[in-house]
Amino acid sequence: MAQIDAFFKLMHEVGASDLHLAAGNQPLIRLRGQIEKIKYKTLEHSELKKMLYEITPEEKIKVFEETGDVDFGYEVSGLSRFRANFFNQKWGVGAVFRSIPTIIPTAEDLGLPPVILKLASLPKGLVLVTGPTGSGKSSSLAAIIDQANRTRQDHIITIEDPIEFVHHSNQCLINHREVGTHTKSFSAALRGALREDPDIIMVGEMRDLETISLAIEASNTGHLVFGTLHTTSAAKTIDRVIEMFPATMQGQIRASLADGLRAVVSQALFRRIDVKGRCAALEIMLATPAVRNLIRESKTYQIGTVLQTGRKFGMQSLDDALLEHILAGRIDPNDAYNYCQDKQKFSQYLTQSPDDFTEF
């Protein structure tokens, strides 16, 4: 048993999502969205480096020594998987570990609306799951992929950095590929995937123009593609994708995206005030003909209106989801205010001055 495994056991026992280790500081965990110290001595650089290297593959140590940053996956048998990130900082080495449950969460576990699972049955197209870091994107995608694995008879390829949720082939054949270990980059793996007879491709992060371009191409050539972006709404997601391309290509990309896009799910995670734990608030946009026309005509600013009129299809705005949580007593109105679009509408629920005084 590695020395660091004791921290992972503690995380599991208290339900922490992240472990923070940094030279010059005590260890800390993120519990229900808030950082808390662990009763342990201040970590010294050499001591922490030895602790971290005990669980790090040799090739990842080499990358870290050369670049000062590295990501990889680590599993404690019978406990959990962890996504690890190492970095250098002023006082020495630092690391953050994100807990990834070994049991794949269901849509019911996550409180996802039924329309989310329907995305797993789409024959083709592009589905984007977006939100800030730590918003639960990976968990939502895992639930969708699990649904496909149990109900379809297809070939699923996942491309991640590192591999997070591990799916075992059920009705589908699933191949997991890790960037840096099994392939050079997201774009290289995605290009290769198009020659590997896939039905569903899951891209853990669409971080560059080439990857996004290949994902759109795949969605328009008969594949169902799931991907993630660090955007906070459906409209901003579409704008971000298009703005990554040179101005001379944006018209063509608008047309391709309008044809290939099937849904955008933007989510944020909140600490619950009624019970222990957290819950997600989701904005759901389905690519109806009206939405596709707005994308083609560069009128994404009107998507908010379509979300309101599309509720019968399962669409909803983030503000509507937040309001539902507030009225049900699940989340603090002050937390919701920091994420909502219509500040005036939500100000009536505040019990204190907003954290961001520039928006009041």
Kindly describe this structure:
By secondary structure, the protein is α/β, with parallel strands linked by helices. The chain is 36% helix and 24% strand. The chain has 15 helices and 13 strands. The strands form two sheets. Strands 9-8-10-11-7-12-13 form a seven-stranded mixed sheet, sandwiched between helices. Strands 3-2-1-6-5-4 form a six-stranded antiparallel sheet, with helices on one face. The longest helix has 15 residues, at 137-151. It is globular and about 60 Å long. It starts with a helix and ends in a 13-residue tail after the last helix.
Task: Please write out the topology.
Layout: H1 5-14, E1 18-22, E2 28-31, E3 34-37, H2 45-53, H3 58-67, E4 69-76, E5 80-89, E6 92-100, H4 107-110, H5 114-118, E7 125-130, H6 137-151, E8 155-160, E9 173-178, H7 186-193, E10 200-203, H8 209-219, E11 224-229, H9 234-243, H10 250-260, E12 261-271, E13 278-286, H11 289-296, H12 303-309, H13 318-327, H14 333-337, H15 343-347
Parallel strand pairs: 7-11, 7-12, 8-9, 8-10, 10-11
Antiparallel strand pairs: 1-2, 1-6, 2-3, 4-5, 5-6, 12-13
